[in-house]
Amino acid sequence: MIEHMETIDEFLAHRTADVEQAVREAAATEIMPRFRQLAAHEVDQKSGPHDLVTDADRKAEEYLTGVLGKLLPGSVVVGEEAVHANPASYEALQGEAPVWIVDPVDGTRQFVHGDPGFCTLVALAQRGVVLASWTYAPVRDQLATAVRGRGALLDGERLLAGAPDPGRDLEVATSHPDYTTDDQKRALLGLRTQGVSPRPCGSAGLEYLAVARGELDAVAFSWEAAWDHAAGLLLVEEAGGAHLTLTGEPFRITGGNTLPFTAARDAATTRRVLELLSGGA
């Protein structure tokens, strides 16, 4: 088993293109052929009508699990669909082995309805620290990557989120009300104030990409699933942004966070959104 961070650094220095290829191939072989072509028997509900899974999710995750494990011997995969089938597999995030965190189709509801607003998310983490991430929007053929300490790229061009323009409303994407507790709803109500324009989020991965590009000022989310957040949070960080939970601490992919939390395009905006959430809590 790979035990030393130097080994992973070497992997990240020389093999990130192999991960990119795997993500693109998973989308090309298992996701895009099913886009707007799904039969009724290829779509199922998990916890409710807003929580869907398709054959594209399952097959793309199986593909990535097989390839990523071989690319980095000793690593393990925590995928959304595998965890749904075996919740105990999520505990690998707490272990010593490098972990691939996979969301094969982030925005499954959009995918099912023929909306192009979905993506594939892959992140590599160890001991709770996200080291690299890949966000691929196959309909747009856009690939965003980030490596901790080395910056974020979109199709090879450097991403810099920058600060919001002064004097205009902050645009914030927020959790769907169906996925919030009463306390979280009250906290999110803090964003309904002058100078802020909240809206429901779409694909979490694409919302994070919008923050990293400076097209969206912040997100405010109320759930912890690592596959939804790991890739995007690193992308935002490496583009110059920041993230904080209600306790003022950065979000932990291993869990135990006080929710909701925010990620924003710069530190000042992160603090402002956090203050509004704390005032509503």
Question: Which keywords apply here?
Answer:
281 residues, alpha+beta, Fructose-1,6-Bisphosphatase, Chain A, domain 1, D-Maltodextrin-Binding Protein, domain 2, seven-stranded mixed β-sheet, globular, disordered N terminus
Low-confidence stretches: 1-6
Mean pLDDT: 93
CATH superfamily of the largest domain: Fructose-1,6-Bisphosphatase, subunit A, domain 1
CATH architecture of the largest domain: 2-Layer Sandwich
* H/E element sequence: HHEEHEHEHEEEEEEHEHEHEEH
As for the CATH topology of the largest domain, it is Fructose-1,6-Bisphosphatase, Chain A, domain 1
Binding site for Mg(2+): 80, 103, 106, 228
Keywords: Hydrolase, Magnesium, Metal-binding
Cofactor: Mg(2+)
GO biological process, one term: signal transduction
Summarize, please.
This protein has 281 residues and is an alpha+beta fold. The protein is built from nine helices and 14 strands. 35% of the residues lie in helices and 26% in strands.
How would you describe what is shown here?
The structure is a single chain. A hairpin with a 2-residue loop joins strand 1 and strand 2. The protein folds into 2 domains: 5-158, Fructose-1,6-Bisphosphatase, Chain A, domain 1 (2-Layer Sandwich), CATH 3.30.540; 170-280, D-Maltodextrin-Binding Protein, domain 2 (3-Layer(aba) Sandwich), CATH 3.40.190.80. The chain has 281 residues and is α+β, with helices and mostly antiparallel strands. It has helices at residues 5-14, 16-31, 55-71, 80-85, 108-112, 182-189, 204-212, 226-238, 267-280, and strands at 43-48, 51-54, 76-79, 99-106, 119-126, 129-137, 142-147, 151-154, 157-158, 170-174, 196-200, 218-221, 242-245, 261-264. Residues 1-6 have low confidence and may be disordered. Helix 2 packs antiparallel against helix 3 (55-71), helix 6 crosses helix 9 (267-280) and helix 7 (204-212) packs parallel to helix 8. It has a 7-stranded mixed sheet with strand order 3-4-5-6-7-8-9, sandwiched between helices. The longest helix has 17 residues, at 55-71. It starts with a helix and ends with a helix. Helix content is 35%, strand content 26%. Mg(2+) binds at residues 80, 103, 106, 228. Its EC number is 3.1.3.25. Its cofactor is Mg(2+).
